[in-house]
Amino acid sequence: MKKRIESLEALRCIAFLCIFVSHLGYDSISIIGPFGVCVFFILSGFVMTYSSLGNDKIKDVGIVENFKFAVCKIKRLYPLHIATMLLVLPIIFWDNYLYPQHLFYIKTVIKMFIHVMLLHSWVPTEGVHFAFNGASWYLSVILFLYFMFPWIFKKVRKHTGNKSALVQVAALILIQFLVFVALPAILLPKGANYSKLRTWFSYINPISRLFDFMIGCNLGYVFFNRKSGYEKKKSMCYTLLELCVLGSIVFAFAISGSDLVKMLGAKYVSIWTISASLLVYLYAVNRGHISSISANRFTLYIAELSSYTFLIHQVVIRYFHMFTSNAKEHDYITHLVVPLLAFLITILLANCWRTFEKRKQR
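RESULT FIELD:
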């Protein structure tokens, strides 16, 4: 079993923090969340491929075998998914008490069934894929990606070298842009739900996220087959590369509100894909100063809990928003204290769940 790459674990922490901050409800920084999500999907493909190369763990490939593989990968998080869904029910019932909805109970039962089956990311309706725990759509998508992984891995390991893998990465980035950004901007009917439909199609849609995942798989192959001579380069070169990538992230953040990006609906996927891909690879190489100092006790600790905190954090934030909804816009104490408390409680609950999980396994 390959030793974990601590710098990638640090990047996992950074990605989670981006997502956490984006869910706090501040519009000016909410766009950083899609970057964190993009990193997570690319990182998942990268790590799974890198850890699978050089061993024969994935032998049987087929619909039944792939399904068993996917279920095995997510079964540890499934009870937490159900728990967080149930924890949100009081908020949903309270909202219905304040603002009664037609056929509320029937709709809620149907949504719960869809969420229990982890099918909600396939439904292009915001009221379904973001219902209950809004972050759980990620688990729905990752189940599909894990199902696809044995087939993807079978193709990736047939590469004749890194050049063909990198060509495939470039092709995947281009196809993702054309299919999930450019064409929908032309073909999708413009109407009241256009923005929400575009968000689902490019951001939530498992097929769109399959491209991020496959990009990560190919980069994992490139990293596994890298030439050791490249790593002898001075760290300053890699530090400059890391700074360039961070600059591209800042640039993407700056243009995310432009009319062209909004029109294309690219702010959720395409403007982050290249930067996220490069950052994942540079953090894996870990020769620059930025990736090196990123790996510390704090980031590694948060990364260790990230699979739990990802599912827990938005539920915690929803409860805080419910109890602080009357806070004034310029109440800076509330706006500073609430995020900090929400983060600390998320970490506490993640630790509690991990402890519960360990005791259950004994």
